[in-house]
């Protein structure tokens, strides 16, 4: 069985949330204070139901949710509802008191545990905490202790003191826990290693062997000397009639006590260097390791403990809870450790991990991700698994979600752009539009998708169902590429225009400057006669094609506009990004031409008396490479960043301003 859903109500910052989980690995991500720790703590409270000693619980009114929109002293009950999916008959056997069966559909069964905590007032007028826990559907149905004890979990805290938890005799020593439950071991001897059953009799025998070694004359005399030294001073410092003497001995020789003293350390020399001279080996104490190294050792000990308990069937359900596995690990070690955790789907324990590391997010399987986001008065969740993304979309995202792009999952909003020029300029444009529109302070992520494959990213935001999309808003900025035309548009069977002839017609129109170097129709008047040379008899048809394409946006732009839905809006630039920048205002046009001339001093522009549109088309024809576009953007950023006068005069295109208003203000 595995935990299928967890419902949390009125707990800390969470008003009401229901989370769905995978059987294997679940990665819970989100910005700071998005409720990740609250969810892990809710799991700890619930899964420790069968423990004699619990390290967490609802202990005061600070754990109760406070509605910040209503002034009230009333605190509504905290509720946790856990539903486990039944996978075989053993699940029902071990958790019989928790089984729910649908009266209308007897085959619909699951295992449920419910918790309710509320504040009451006693006869003295003091607040006291009350609670009830039940299994199945009906409140009041008790959970049997022996069934509750079939649930086991381990928890690795954020910024944990791994060194302390690995030290001998520490109360929560994970290595000790592992050795306590081992029931078999391999004994080396001549030939193949022999498997030995480690039952209670064998444990007693092993402990007795150690006691026999220690109880020789030398050790007995040494202990007695220390004991006499202490008792001599005790007798002199106490009242005569009191019995003050103490007895000293080594730790009681029981297996459980001996394994508490197991020392965790690392070899200094490699096995190859030492060979058979094992007595020459030296060791590093765990205190000499870095925090990250000890965290990995601790996590490995916990995994070993769970794996052993599962094999020995000590309990029936196992979970591993890890908060911020990235703590103290550099990105490469994060990758290695997390890749290993990602492959524990069949480990036999359900794994819950919280993180705010883009490195870990980028390495996660998308279907394992649960994204938490803050709303004004609640926490909401989104699973990529439940989104409108198909297999192809997920494959694309998995390939391109690097550390930078994956930050959109932690952002308050996102703006998707085609290339580096837009990505460079958007942050400074935001400040030009409004001083309060600082991209970083508003938590907005500008994502350069390096092309035009918007759909996989868009489907994270554009579902009409809130549960199937990110809560944050998103804008897409793209070019409408109006008037784009290529040779393929002239191919026509009836006109007997082949691919070769279509290329020639396209080339002629470029020569006549009807089509520019960017394959855009820029100088077309239906009343004017076309000079088509050998293809003059095709003039009517060619004019028809030019007319159809002249004001038509590209197929790619049409596809982009169809993505607008839910929390996503699409804003199109007339023609291109650079064209829009120039035609937005005459000052923009002057500044951009000035910058380009500084980049290319030998540039010859069209007449200064030409229209602003003509000047824009003229510059576009010169921006013949992405390198030119990014260099132009870098220079424009410099001018806008370093001159308040330029910022005041510069006009951000309307379509960009609309995109910023949507993502930041929601208007």
UniProtKB/TrEMBL annotation:
Gene3D superfamilies: P-loop containing nucleotide triphosphate hydrolases (3.40.50.300)
Every Endonuclease GajA/Old nuclease/RecF-like AAA domain range: 1-360
Domain of life of the source: Bacteria
GO MF term (any one): endonuclease activity
Start and end residues of each OLD protein-like TOPRIM domain: 409-481
Keyword Hydrolase belongs to the record: yes
Key words, A-Z: Endonuclease, Hydrolase, Nuclease
Protein name as catalogued: Putative ATP-dependent endonuclease of the OLD family
Organism encoding this protein: Sunxiuqinia elliptica
């Amino acid at each position: 069985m595995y935990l299928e859903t967890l419902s949390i109500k009125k707990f800390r910052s969470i008003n009401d949330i229901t989370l769905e989980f995978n059987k294997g690995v679940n990665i819970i991500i989100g910005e700071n204070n998005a409720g990740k720790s609250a969810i892990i703590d809710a799991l700890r409270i619930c899964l420790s139901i069968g423990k004699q000693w619990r390290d967490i619980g609802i202990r005061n009114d600070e754990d109760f949710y406070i509605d910040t929109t209503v002034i009230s002293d009333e605190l509504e009950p905290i509720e946790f509802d856990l539903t486990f999916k039944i996978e075989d008959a053993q699940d029902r056997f071990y958790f019989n008191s928790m089984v729910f069966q649908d009266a209308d559909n007897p085959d619909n069964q699951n295992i449920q545990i419910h918790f309710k905590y509320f504040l009451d007032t006693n006869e003295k007028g003091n607040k006291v905490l009350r609670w009830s826990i039940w299994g199945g559907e009906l409140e009041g149905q008790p959970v049997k202790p022996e069934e509750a004890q079939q649930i086991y979990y381990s928890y690795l805290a954020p910024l944990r003191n791994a060194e302390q938890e690995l030290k001998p005799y520490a109360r929560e020593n994970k290595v000790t826990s592992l050795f306590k439950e081992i029931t078999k071991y391999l004994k080396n001897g001549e030939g193949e290693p022999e498997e030995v059953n480690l039952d209670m009799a064998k444990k007693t025998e092993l402990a007795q062997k150690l006691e026999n070694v220690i109880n020789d004359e030398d050790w007995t005399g040494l202990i007695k000397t220390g004991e006499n030294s202490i008792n001599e001073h005790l007798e002199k410092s106490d009242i005569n009639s009191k019995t003050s003497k103490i007895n000293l001995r080594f730790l009681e020789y029981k297996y459980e006590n001996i394994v508490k003293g197991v020392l965790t350390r690392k070899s200094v020399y490699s096995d190859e260097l030492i060979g058979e001279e094992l007595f020459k080996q030296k060791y590093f104490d765990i205190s000499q390791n870095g925090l990250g190294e000890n965290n990995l050792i601790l996590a490995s000990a916990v995994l070993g403990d769970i794996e052993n308990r599962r094999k020995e069937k000590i309990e029936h359900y196992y979970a591993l809870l890890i908060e911020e596995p990235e703590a103290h690990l550099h990105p490469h070690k994060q990758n290695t450790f997390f890749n290993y955790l990602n492959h524990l789907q069949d480990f036999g324990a359900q794994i819950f991990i919280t993180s705010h590391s883009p490195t870990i997010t980028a390495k996660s399987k998308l279907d394992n991700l649960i994204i938490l986001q803050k709303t004004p008065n609640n926490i909401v969740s989104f699973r990529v698994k439940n989104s409108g993304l198909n297999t192809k979309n997920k494959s694309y995202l998995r390939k391109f979600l690097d550390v930078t792009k994956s930050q959109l999952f932690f952002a308050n909003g996102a703006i998707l752009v085609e290339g580096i020029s837009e990505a460079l300029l958007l942050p400074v444009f935001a400040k030009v539009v409004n001083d309060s529109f600082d991209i970083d302070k508003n938590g907005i992520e500008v994502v350069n998708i390096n092309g035009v494959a918007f759909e996989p990213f868009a489907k994270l935001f554009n579902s009409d169902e809130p549960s199937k999309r990110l809560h944050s808003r998103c804008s897409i900025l793209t070019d409408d590429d109006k008037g784009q035309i290529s040779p393929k548009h002239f191919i026509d069977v009836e006109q007997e225009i082949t691919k070769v002839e279509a290329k020639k017609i396209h080339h002629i129109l470029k020569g006549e400057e009807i089509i520019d170097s960017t394959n855009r129709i820029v100088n077309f008047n239906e009343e004017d006669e076309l000079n088509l040379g050998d293809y003059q008899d095709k003039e009517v048809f060619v004019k028809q094609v030019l007319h159809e394409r002249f004001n038509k946006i590209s197929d790619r732009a049409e596809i982009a506009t169809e993505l607008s839905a839910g929390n996503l809006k699409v804003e199109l630039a007339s023609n291109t990004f650079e064209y829009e920048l120039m035609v937005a205002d005459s000052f923009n046009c002057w500044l951009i031409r000035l910058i380009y001339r500084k980049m290319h001093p030998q540039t010859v522009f069209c007449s200064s008396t030409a229209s602003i549109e003509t000047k824009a088309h003229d510059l576009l024809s010169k921006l013949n490479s992405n390198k030119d576009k990014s260099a132009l953007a870098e220079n424009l950023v410099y001018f806008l960043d370093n001159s308040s006068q330029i910022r005041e005069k510069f006009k951000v295109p309307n379509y960009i301003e609309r995109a910023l208003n949507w993502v930041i203000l929601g208007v």
